[in-house]
Write a structure and sequence with these properties.
Elements (H helix, E strand, L loop, with lengths): L2 H15 L1 E3 H8 L3 H13 L4 E3 L2 E3 L8 H6 L2 H11 L8 E4 L3 H8 L8 E4 L2 H7 L6 E4 L3 E3 L4 E3 L1 H7 L6 E5 L2 E3 L3 E4 L2 H12 L4 E4 L11 E4 L6 E3 L18 E2 L1
Parallel strand pairs: 4-5, 4-9, 5-6, 9-12, 12-14, 14-15
Antiparallel strand pairs: 1-3, 2-3, 7-8, 10-11, 11-13
Helix pairs in contact: 1-3, 2-3, 5-6, 6-7, 8-9
Length: about 250
């Protein structure tokens, strides 16, 4: 079957059911899963669908606004947030970047936690407003109302003034070959600035982010220290990451 016909079929299926799997498309078209994977990768890079773990979803159902994303996979984000808590100790300086999972982590911080937080995430301000023992520093700059984050030269310059014990980063894509990626250039720039000045990098990723690749590179998988997902640590979906020298939680 011509690849153009395969593309048409995949996009038509997404209009009907909003989500497809490599296995499902492979069975219906009579082609290998590797062929389907390459097709979906091509369509993803051209902005026609969103690549997710094991398949693809319609761009129209991929939450874009902060509020939409906050309600998407809420249970999974709470699991990640709870898993992250034991890694944050009193006295630490912590970088926290943009995203709804980062907001969830902040919302679960115990009332007596004594740390310094440097963030470009506007929603973290409200989440930590009542935490009197947390020193909150906002890396201001250009404000993006959709992402609810600050970015740009001023933001990155502010971040460069600090050395963090821990960097908690939300992700758009986590891939064995391409590493941590971001969907927006300004987001990637902030992530790189925080990564550069952090002693330890902790990546937070729900199962949809695993195997996904976005346009802007942040860092390699080998350069991170911890990967936290909503999955059980023995889940086969994270088997690909086990041979890397990182902690999986």
């Amino acid at each position: 079957m011509l690849k153009e016909k395969r593309f048409e079929f995949i996009l038509d299926q997404l209009k009907k059911k909003q989500h497809v799997t490599f296995e499902g498309v492979s069975a219906k078209l009579g082609v290998s899963e590797d062929t389907v994977r390459r097709d979906i990768e091509y369509l993803h890079k051209n902005g026609l669908l969103s690549k997710i773990r094991g398949g693809a979803m319609s761009r129209a159902t991929n939450p874009l606004t902060f509020q939409d994303r906050k309600n998407h996979l809420k249970k999974e984000k709470n699991i990640i947030a709870l898993k992250a808590q034991p890694l944050i100790k009193n006295g630490m300086t912590v970088f926290m970047d943009g995203g709804t999972t980062i907001h969830s982590v902040a919302a679960y911080f115990p009332a007596d936690l004594k740390i310094r937080v440097i963030t470009n995430n506007y929603t973290v301000i409200s989440a930590l407003a009542e935490h009197k023992n947390i020193e909150l520093i906002v890396a201001g700059g250009n404000f993006d109302r959709t992402l609810q984050t600050f970015s740009g030269f001023t933001t990155c310059s502010g971040i460069a003034e600090y050395i963090a014990d821990v960097y908690l980063t939300g992700t758009c894509g986590v891939d064995l070959q391409y590493g941590i990626t971001a969907a927006f250039q300004q987001d990637a720039e902030v992530k790189r600035a925080m990564k550069k000045n952090a002693r330890q990098t902790i990546v937070l990723a729900n199962h949809e982010r695993l195997g996904q690749v976005e346009a802007f590179g942040v860092c390699s998988m080998e350069s991170i220290d911890v990967l936290i997902t909503d999955l059980n640590s023995d889940d086969q979906e994270i088997d690909d990451f086990r041979h890397i020298d990182i902690q999986i939680i």
